[in-house]
Amino acid sequence: MKHLLKLGDLTREEILDLLGLADQLKFERKNNIPHPVLAGRTLGMIFQKSSTRTRVSFEAGMYQLGGNALFLSSRDLQIGRGEPVQDTARVLSRYLDAIMIRTYAQSEVEDLARYGSIPIINGLTDYAHPCQVLADLQTIREYKGTLQGRKLAFIGDGNNMANSLIVGGIKTGMSVAIGCPKGYLPDADIVKWAQRCGDLTITEDINEAASNADAVYTDVWASMGMEEEADRRRRDFAGYQVNAKLMEYAKPDAIVLHCLPAHRGEEITDEVLEAHAGEIFEEAENRLHAQKAVLVRLING
Ligand code: CP
Ligand code: NVA
Known about the structure:
Rossmann fold; binds norvaline; alpha/beta; 4-stranded parallel β-sheet; 12 helices; binds phosphoric acid mono(formamide)ester; 5-stranded parallel β-sheet; single chain; 2 domains
């Protein structure tokens, strides 16, 4: 594994290896066992969109691994004034040991990897959010014991989260069901791949999607960068909510996951979020452990 641009680039074995290392790093942190395996290493973090979890977990994670992290807002970098990504990549490669980038176009992340000479990590694009899904898979495995044969239901927009959950779920042997309105389908190539390689259902009927699920997942109706569509989306997604009624269709011991931030009263009710706060905030914590595993594998091999 040279980069983490999208989960589709990883084999099932590479994903399971990262999850195993994430569990080990979580154990070490919980038991105050130092693990400074990235001493002297520096991660650059380029943000073109807001972040709480990604920024803080990468930054804290690098410190816990004995290294440093630099927060680089695109507003302050020359990239924000038009310096080409291919030049930025070649310059930063000479100072840093890895770069995490959160941006809009997936092609920008791919370009950084093409022109740079250090590992690139996708910290969210409009297309994918692989770091989040590694933490999600770690969480599902923690609560359910296994991934193989489990059913993951995603309710809402066929967005970056849906795309990455389909790929991560199918690669680890889960069946995946997406309940989304017409016109908001996940990426067509990902859907085609998943239907060929595994068990993917796409339906407008959220009860069908949630039926018998082990994990029910949702995300905001309007992602970052789509703020001007928020009103239309509020209308189009009415009914695509994770609430107590929907949870009756899932398995009685189903967990609920949300990448956060959540909009209570829109994609999820306050009641369901609070009833499942245990797993949702464990999931947020697992961002730290899963990303530390990514950093160790990418920088140390
Ligand atoms: N889930 C997630 O990526 O959160 P942030 O936007 O706060 O980083
Ligand atoms: N789909 C959301 C995820 C946030 C972590 C967004 O892109 O804004």
